[in-house]
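Researcher: Next entry in the queue.
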Amino acid sequence: MQKFFNSFKYAFSGLHYAFKTQFNFKFHTVAVLVAGIAGWILKLSTAEWLWVIAAISTVLISELLNTAIEVLVDLVSPSYNEKAKIIKDVSAGAVLIAAVFAVAVALMIFIPKLA
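Model: Structure for this entry, 115 residues:
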């Protein structure tokens, strides 16, 4: 049972690391708060909330995986390496796609409610 509880401790430690060291993770966390407040004020439907939560989760998960990949690449390739750069760039590209998805979801849900 202790291993089970430790897994949560490790997960929260990872979230703490990302929040403390990654500007983009902080930015996305603020965006989550803004989206949550806007959704509450605009009284989103259950289906709309599901899309917003999916978009938020996709971005945060992508950002966390990007951070993990960057730390791993730095560990195994401390000096400049073209392939390490490609790995980091592709990982960042995944976050970009997730963020574009989130913006598209936000525009489709929030703009009609504001108009």
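Model: Residues 2-114 form a domain with the Helix Hairpins fold (CATH 1.10.287.3610).
Researcher: Noted, moving on.
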